[in-house]
Amino acid sequence: MVPPAATVTGAPAPTSTVSGQPVGTLPGPEIKDPAKDTILTPRFYTTDFAAMAAMDLQPNQAELEAICEEFRKDYNRHHFVRNDEFIGAADKLDPETRRVFVEFLEQSCTSEFSGFLLYKEMSRRIKTKNPLLAECFAHMARDEARHAGFLNKSMADFGLQLDLGFLTANKAYTYFKPAYIFYATYLSEKIGYWRYIAIYRHLEKHPESKIYPIFNFFENWCQDENRHGDFFDALMKSQPKTVNGLASRLWCRFFLLAVFATMYVRDVARKEFYEALGLDARQYDKYVIEKTNETSARIFPVVLAVNKPEFWRRLEHLVDNNEALSKVAASGGPAPLQALRKLPHWAANGYQMVRLFLMAPIRSDRFQPAVR
Ligand SMILES: [Fe+2]
Ligand SMILES: [Fe+2]
Predict the structure, then answer these.
(1) How far apart are the CA of 2 and the centre of ligand 2, in A?
(2) How many angstroms separate the alpha carbon of residue 138 from the centre of ligand 2?
(3) pLDDT tens sequence across 325-347
(4) What is the 3 state secondary structure string of 81-97?
(5) How many angstroms separate the alpha carbon of residue 230 from the centre of ligand 2?
(6) By percentage, how much of the chain surpasses pLDDT 70?
(7) Closest ligand, as measured to the CA of 109
(8) Nearest ligand, CA of residue 118?
(9) Dist. CA 40 → ligand 2 center (Å)
(10) Dihedral sign from CA coordinates of 301, 182, 215, 66
(11) Low-confidence ranges of the chain (pLDDT < 50)
(12) CA–CA separation, 118 vs 296, rounded Å?
């Protein structure tokens, strides 16, 4: 998995159009145009590879070696195998559910694939200088490739396929220095874990809402994400500066807020998908955010005060602003006029984000002393 975008000021990703050529001469899946880039769509990352290669892991070498040993075991080697349940499953979805489900598949596939690219590149670039780190990244790239491939096969059930080669070559890459990659990727992995496991457990209790067999795979799948998150936890411990001091406290707050706010706005805008699974998008996100926040306290020096009603009230303002922005975008008209009409909503979003950022955080050592 890979982090959502860093700020919430844009409109939710519009439904992308389906176009492209059939593969080969036989009627096959159509290549799906990647969703138009907005601030809320998954991003592709790059970093300072030389700095990564030079990292001294000594302060937490033993734990990183133990995690690498776990990765070598490759617990999910035989997990992602499609079974007969997939046959005809796509045809059972009504058109509206189908639309939101394809969007979910596309977004997830892009996220997994972007994780694959980053980890793979990391592994390749530091191979000779930092073999332990390189090996860990190679194992994680293996997992993410598997996740992305499995999702892409599901898209093929709907007659669509993401052109991953095109995505690799044409996506814009965002540069983050290593510490920011750690914060963002750690959060993305842990949030991915909580997202997958929450859906899995819900559907275990409500099998009638299991609209597609891919959800049966989520339990083992989320364990991959959990291990990836643990790897970044161990990596940050090996680089104590990343989780100590004033700067790290501010950056951790920023990344927690950016990731939580982005997810909340995006999921509420796509609440129909959660409804199709019998979930309320707001309740689901609240659970995932609370759990991720709690988990993050094991490594981040501070976490957010998600126990305060103010936090949720301000997120709702973001949701309203983004709805208003979408309406302006949908109403058409010349670009300068649109920008003028959007301006107050952008400003309102900025104001809410600043107020959220300024909310007093919770010191992690006071939050969860038992697990630190
Ligand atoms: Fe993944
Ligand atoms: Fe992952």
Answers:
(1) 7
(2) 12
(3) 999 999 888 889 999 999 999 99
(4) CCCHHHCCHHHHCCHHH
(5) 10
(6) 87
(7) 1
(8) 2
(9) 19
(10) negative
(11) 1-27, 37-40, 369-372
(12) 22
